[in-house]
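Final report, Chapter 2: Outcomes

The project's central promise was a pipeline that accepts a single protein chain and returns its three-dimensional structure in a standardized token representation, suitable for archiving and comparison. That pipeline is now operational. To close this chapter, we reproduce one record exactly as it appears in the project archive, with the input sequence first and the structure output second.
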Amino acid sequence: MAASGNKIAKYKRPINLNIGMIIFAVIFIYVIICVFMYLSTEHVVGYEVQEGALSSDNIYRGIALRKEKIITGTNAGYTNYYAREGERVAAGNLIYTIDETGKLSDYIKTSETGENSLSDKDLSELKTEIESFANGFDKTNFSDIYNFKYSVQGTVIKLANYNILQNANALNDSSNTAVIDYYNASESGIVIYSIDGYEDLTLQDMKAEYFDQKNYQKEHLINNELVAAGDPVYKLSTDEDWSIVIQVTPDLAEELLKKEYVEVKFLKNQYTSWGLVDTYTNEEGDTFASLTFTNSMITFCTERFVDIELLLENEKGLKIPNSAIVEKEFFIVPKEYVTQGGSKGEKGVLLETYDEEGTSVIQFIETTIYEETENEYYLDDTVLRSGNYLVKPDSTEKYAVSRIGSLQGVYNINKGYADFKQIIILYQNDEYSIVKSNTTYGLNVYDYIVLDAATVEDNDFIYE
């Protein structure tokens, strides 16, 4: 007997849903929706308002103009200097000697000249000069090394030449005729041992090409060099008043003229001084500004090109990015039409409306004030409409809302929504603005504002 085949049916287990799985599914779907909304929504970035100031690029390399007199030699011979460069001399002080025959040079080489030493004062002066050069050296102006070299040589030569002077006197005494000629300063001034052709320049002579230092040549007058009669032997700056001329734009020239005096920082030593402004535009259309000082000439007497910074913007306030600034329109209403009302005595206006029967109804409407002048308020345009009539308190006079004015401001988000705050810009560059702090309707330090005003609208709730 054959056994019959058995069929085995697979048992389908029912889906067992419980409250835990349902809650998990709901949370999972909610998270997916939140992530999608976060990725697809333009986010509002906040910015904390801080106090600050703006640094603008007002650094210039100017040409120094002084009252300079070039002194030429009357005889040919070898020069020996006895005044250090940059030293103030009085009329009658010995500046240099001329050795007509060259015997003094030979005498020095063959005779005992004694030992020269530097005093503590001289050593301190040399140390200061070296430190000043090291701190202000710019590799792009390598020629400054030569100016420094000659300056240090001038200090040392002055000390050595006093000993040489004794030999010169001895040489004259031993000769029947004087071979060494002595030359004193004809007037007081600052001694300079270089010439550059800029000595007689004035503001009205200025050209843009004069500022190109590649074409600038400075001739140093070296101690114990042979000179011919009529050659320059030294230069004398005779007046403490001096000027620095810079090339500027016409707009800046006009701004400087309005100020009359401008504060200037000398980058060499970080000192500041006030300069009297004058301007000039030449035939080529290049504009120059002259800043005249009554002090510090001796500090820069050996320099033709001086680096300065114009300290034009001294305004300090709240520093905000320009991207946060927006311009918004408001209704302008006379102050006598604004009153106090409501349960808390808020400021607002009496708005004339009409009921269903056409009867005039006076209703108090609270409105935010964003700015005020002597006689007017700037009111929010979200609660008023053009053509509304406002009633003057305790009067039957009416005012038709129509005048519109715009204010610059930012959106404050301290309360979680975009609240317009008016700003007064003191100074602005390409990226930031300095605005007045502690204004009645404006910002305060540490307020949070919208970084990009284009991402929100007035009264939007903020989700960062």
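Archive annotation: Residues 144-174 form the longest helix (31 residues).
This record, like all others produced under the grant, will remain available to the consortium after the project formally closes.
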